[in-house]
Amino acid sequence: KQLVTAQEQAKSLGKGRWSPNLPVTREILWSVENTRSFFESYKNRPLKAVVENVRDGCSVQVFILPESLNEKPNTFVYVTVTMSGIKSPSIRYEDGKIVPDAWGLDALFFTESRLLQRDVTILLESVFNQTFVGSILHPNGNIAELLLRHGLAHCIDWNLNLVSVPGAAEAYKIAERLAKEKRLRVFENYQPTQTPEVHADSHQTVVPGKIFSGIVSARPTLFVILFIWTHIGESGHQIYMRHTDNLICVYLLRVI
Questions:
Q1: CA-CA distances (angstroms) from residue 185 to 88, 141, 181?
Q2: Residue 233 neighbours by CB under 8 Å, 6+ apart
């Protein structure tokens, strides 16, 4: 009886489905036909979106909202976005079962608990087939940096140059380094690279310095350039070269 009464009240007030106004129809573009053209139209433009699904730690599916698009009114575009500059552990599906890499479910939950059904801003930075690559920004921060800081992703060096958010690429590297130092999650077995101790007075050690390119014209196969300690002083440029019998020779270049 209470439900019937509530319905009658809604009808009399013209609310919701009982409104005399024509309803607004939501159009959904489930697949972008020409991803390259779409990308060129919206490249690096802030696009308002709602996260509809989280595939893994660094990949989400979103509805881009009509106010950010030059499409028909009330048109939502459904796209998959992979975060630029990072990679989280993968999650695969085999025979209907989830097969995650180590820490894959943790990365999925981390992103899902923070972004699912939430408003975000998308910056499209590249495209590959039907998947867009970009930055996903939330008012509380950059989810990619948080994944790195908690050891649930690692940087992809060749992909970092795509990141268009000012200062983000450097922040990613710092976050990854901190996670490595703490050996968090995907870095639990991380071992830092051992670098030899450098002594400026040792002929057996390569000392970082300036690198000069050129051609050794006198029997070049007899020498290995040790790249190179250069000392700039009154005597000119000083370089060390090792002979094939391990004899260390010092050369002073008077004219360069």
A1: 11, 21, 11
A2: none
User: Tens-digit pLDDT profile for the chain (256 aa)?
Assistant: 899 999 999 999 888 888 877 667 789 999 999 999 999 999 999 999 999 999 999 999 999 999 999 888 889 999 999 999 999 999 998 998 999 999 999 999 999 999 999 999 999 999 988 899 999 999 999 999 999 999 999 999 989 999 999 999 999 999 999 999 999 999 999 998 876 555 544 444 444 554 444 444 444 433 344 333 333 333 445 565 655 555 556 666 654 4
Strand 91-94 relative to strand 86-87, pairing: unpaired
Question: What range does the domain containing 36 cover?
Answer: 25-187
Last residue of a domain, one of 132, 159, 187: 187
Tokens standing for residue 147 = 């994944």
Look at the chain and report how many structural domains it folds into: 2
Both 169 and 234 in one domain: the answer is no
* Stated pTM of the model: 0.68
Check whether residue 176 and residue 240 sit in a common domain.
no
